[in-house]
Structure prediction request, 416 residues.
Amino acid sequence: MVLSPILLKSSLSICLKNLICVTSTTAIGSVRSRYSHPLPPTVLAKIFGSNKGKPFGKDATAGSDLQRNTVNFLKVNYSNFSSPCLREELLCKTSESVRDCCHKVTIVGAGMVGISVANALLLQRITSHIAIVDAFPKKLEGEGMDFAHSSPFIGDPKIEYDTDFCVTNNSKVVVICAGVRPKAKESRLDLVQRNAEILKNIIPPLVNYSPNAVFIVISNPVDILTWITWKVSGLPPYQVIGSGTHLDSGRFRYLIGDRLGIAPSSVQAFMIGEHGDSMVPLWSGVSVAGVQFRDIIPNIGLETDDEKWYEVSREVIKLGPTVRCLKGYSNTAIGFSAVDIIIAVLRNTQAIIPVSTLVQGHHDVCDEVFLSLPCVIGENGITNIIRMHITEYEKKLFLSSANIVHNIQKKINIKA
Prediction:
């Protein structure tokens, strides 16, 4: 407010006195009765210290009698002033908010794969509530803060992160990405045993907090770790799913589509068995627009195939190690393929996806092993396993894959 230069000093004195009179009889009383919370400390207190109430330069109490009277009045009448609570003043509560939404997803492990799963979930807006758990608090806090800061741009999801498993409570899906990387010259069995020890410690509390959740295992070797998760958890087998050959099948479809010059999504093709060197390409079921490749080339995928399509399936087996060799790890594709499984659970789509499940009794497998077959996935996990009409040669390869996994599996100690 700018005072007119023609305003006389006496007039100014009268105006201030009237203002003081009105304020003391009305405004101050209403302020006191409305705001009862103490005034929080201001950041200026750290800057100004004990002189936080004084302006720079001349003492605030210096000057005319009118100035001193005004300052004294303010000290007396505003000494008990307290700040309002913004939340209480802004929001009128009518009911309790929901703590956990019905499609909460927990990600265990904030490494490259776990963060890729979170990115794929949030960027596609599959869920509005994720929880991330990790054993390394600094890395976890950094990733959690990064996601939280991006929330205004991705639909305001609820993002929780903690080293305590209680943050996973009431999850619909629990994604296991935790595990150790292989050491130099470490055998596959040694790696499995170390990861088995991790699962033995983390699975029981996760099941305790979310007994109805569908568990999706991504950590490698995924087939064996999915079997361990099932054993340790005590859950029914349909509630424990391994990501299995879903990504391998995606790579298979990509390479076929790329060679034909058509969209990979238009190719129907599956890799089954172990997620590893012994995986089996189902050339007997590869088709485009309902046209079976075997109707055109009866020996497709075999060594006698003149067009050498068998090179495509061999390339699929090499792609994972190739990506890891080039960039140091593989994370983006596995993140999106895992979210494809999560979508089927959250939306109860009954989609058919090649995932690792208990295959005992299928295709003459007698042992208790988890391998990939096309499965129908819904809200409760796996609802059906497709009865594939595979060739005798493909069945032989599938049984060989089962034996490889079982031979490692039977050497693992999963007892507490």
User: Anything to note?
Assistant: DSSP finds 13 helices and 14 strands in the chain. Residues 1-62 have pLDDT under 50 and may be disordered. The chain has two domains: 105-242, 246-409.
